[in-house]
Structures are given as C-alpha cells and as structure tokens.
Design goal:
Helices cover 67% and strands 5% of the residues. The protein is built from five helices and two strands; from the N terminus they run H-E-E-H-H-H-H. It is elongated and about 70 Å long. The protein is mainly alpha-helical. The protein has a two-stranded antiparallel sheet with strand order 1-2. 4% of the residues are buried.
Length: 117
C-alpha cells in the first residue's frame, strides 16, 4: 500500500469524523435565559430545559419550581419520571465507541479494496 493510499484513507476518515460531529451537534434554545412559567423569575437553560425545548415545549420552569413539582407527585410517578430522565441522560453521551470502531475498520476496508484490484 503506497503513501498516496494511506493519505487518502486518512483524509476520508477525518472528513467522516467532521461530518458525523456536525450531524451530532445538539441544537440549543435561541436564548440562554427564560422566564419561569410558574414564578416568573429569570433562569438559565440547563440540560432539562434544553431537552424540553428540543422536544417542542414552550413553557419552562426554573429548578426550584421543578423541584417543588417533583415533590408534589406521587412516589410511583416520581420513580418513572426519574428513570426516564436517567435513560435520556445516559444515552445522550454515547457514540464515541461507534466512531472509534468505524475508524478502526476504515483502513481494513481500504486495504481489502486495494488488494482486490
């Protein structure tokens, strides 16, 4: 395998990583600050409110009001809500292993394509 082939494979891998990073970027709310829907105070968006914005919600609650709402919920509903938020937060950080596996397989695929020609 010549140096031109290795440079081509490396350039393709870098371009693929850049494209994947651009598509994986999370959208952010247009403003960093919102007005609480319950108490009216100004609050900064956090992961919870940013995810709600991405899901199409338009009314947001500050951390204190959200905490009061959670405490007012029956324990059975509170558990299911916590499990759902734990699930979304754990899956939102994934993807690195897949990218590393793809980068490991790309040179092998290039070598196989070159060997078959």
């Amino acid at each position: 395998m010549g140096p031109e082939t290795l440079i081509g494979i490396a350039a393709a891998a870098i371009a693929l990583v850049v494209v994947l990073a651009l598509f994986n970027k999370k959208r952010q709310p247009p403003s960093r600050i919102f007005k609480c829907g319950r108490c009216g105070s100004a609050a900064h968006h956090n992961d919870r409110t940013s995810n709600a914005w991405r899901n199409g919600k338009t009314r947001f609650f500050c951390q204190a009001c959200h905490r009061q709402w959670l405490q007012s919920q029956p324990p059975s509903e509170r558990r299911s809500g916590d499990a759902r938020s734990d699930f979304t937060s754990s899956t939102s950080n994934g993807g690195c292993l897949g990218v590393l596996a793809l980068l490991a397989v790309l040179p092998l695929g290039g070598w196989l394509a070159w060997a078959c020609i």
